[in-house]
Design brief:
Layout lengths: L8 H5 L4 H9 L7 H22 L3 H17 L7 H15 L7 H14 L14 H14 L10 H10 L3 H15 L4 H4 L2 H18 L4 H9 L7 H20 L5 H18 L1
Helix pairs in contact: 3-4, 3-5, 3-6, 3-14, 4-5, 5-6, 5-7, 6-7, 8-9, 8-11, 9-11, 11-12, 11-13
Length: 276
Amino acid sequence: MAANFWKGSQCASWMLDEAVLTRANAKDESFLPLAAQSALTYLFADVIRALGDELKLRQQVVATAIIYFKRFYHKNTWTSIQPYLMAQTCIYLATKVEECGPIQARRVQAVGGRVAEKFSHVVLQPAETPFKTEDIVECEFFLVQAMDCCLIVFHPYRSLVEYTNASKTADSLLPLAWNIVNDSYKSDLCFRYPPYLIALGSLQIASTALKDSGHGSADQFAAWFATLINISTTEVMEVVQAMLDLYASLAEYDPKEHPVAALEALAHETTRLNEL
C-alpha cells in the first residue's frame, strides 16, 4: 500500500488530462448528450451519499465510493452495468478498502431498497426485479477489474485540516471548505488535480465567501497562502474556476427533471442493445 499520493496508483494511473476525459465522455454521446451524462453523475453522487448516510459511513468512505463509480464509467459505457447496482457495489467495496468495519452485501442490498424509495421520482431499479445480494458480489469483480485493482484513494480532507490548522482558520474556514470538497466529487477534479490542490482551491473559495461577508479570517488565510512555496497559483485558480463552473451547472440542474430524462434515454439504449 502506498504511503502517499505521489507513490500510489492514483497518481500513476488515475490522473488524466482533459483530452482523455473528453474522449471517455464521447463514447456515450450518441444516446446521452454531455448534459445528460452530467445529470447522471449528479444523481448518483447524491444516491451514493444517501446510501452512506443510511449505513452511517464516514465521509471519506462515501467519497471513495463516488470515485470508484466515476472510474468505472470512465472506462465503460453507461449501458454496461445498471448504475444503481454499480452505486451499491461501490459503497460495498469502499467499506472494505477503507476498513470502516464489516458491512455485508445483504445489508447494502437492504439499504439500497430503502434509498430507492427515497428517490421515488426516478427509477433506480426495476420494482419487479430489485437487485439481489449476489448481484452486488458479482458486480464487485467487474468494478475491481475496471479499476485495474487500483483501490487506494487519497482525498483532500486531510490537507484541508492541515492547512486550516497551519493558517489558524480551522474554526471559520474548515466547515465551508469541507462542503466545497464534498461538492467537488460531482466534477472531474478528482481525475485532473492532486488532492492538495483541490483542498487549496476549496479554501480559496471559502475564504472569498467569508471575505465578502466581512470575516477577518479571510485575510488571515490570504497571508498564510502568500507564504507557500512550490505551489502553482495557476493550478489553484484552475481548481477554483472548475468549481465555479460546477456550481453554475448545478444552478441549472433540476433534480426532479434532468435525471429522469437521462435515465429514460439510458433505458431505451439498453433495451435496444439487448434486442440486437
